[in-house]
Amino acid sequence: RNQMINGLIGGLSEQQIVANVSANVGLLPHQTEAFVNTALNNYSRTITAQMADDLPPDTKFIYIGPVDEKTRNICLQMAGAGELTKAEIQSNYAGSFIDGGGVNCRHSWEEETAGKDLHFKKLANKRINDKKKLGAWETPQTFAESKQAII
Question: Of 4, 17, 98, 116, which sees the most CB atoms within 10 A?
Answer without folding.
Answer: 17
